[in-house]
Amino acid sequence: MIFHKKHFVLNSIFYACLCIFSILGSIATASESQVLTVEEIEKGALDKLASILPWDRESLEINVYYKGKDIILPPGKKELVYKTRGSNQRAGRIPLILQIKVNDNFQKRIRLNS
Q1: Is 54 in contact with 16 (CB distance < 8 Å)?
Q2: I need a surface site. Which of 1, 7, 73, 83 has the fewest CB within 10 A?
Q3: pTM for this model (two decimals)
């Protein structure tokens, strides 16, 4: 009976340590990357267009089309830079370019339509 008790205690300690390390390990890996969602991309484009267009935001109907998925980025300070292309056209289809930077390092360039 003593052998079974000792065996049970050792197994319990082993599984408790295993659970603690797996929980701490999953917390550490969660902070290693960040996700840029499609909603964030589209909302930023809407805000950029509303700021550059000469009309009131309430009188505009703006649709942004991005046919992509969420983007996984490395950890750090995320910066989204929206640029309009060289056209002075302020009505109809307005193409946008999104440059994604993390810690001032270029990560990705995305083309958007609005």
Answers
A1: no
A2: 1
A3: 0.62
Q: Which two tokens stand for residue 69?
A: 């998925």
Residue 48 host element (H or E): helix 38-52
Enumerate the β-bridge partners of residue 65: 113
Q: What is the pLDDT of residues 15-44, one digit of tens each?
A: 676 667 666 565 544 457 899 998 998 898
CA distance 12 to 3: 14
Rounded CA separation 89/91 (Å): 6
Strand order in the sheet with 105-113: 78-84, 95-102, 105-113
Residues in the chain: 114
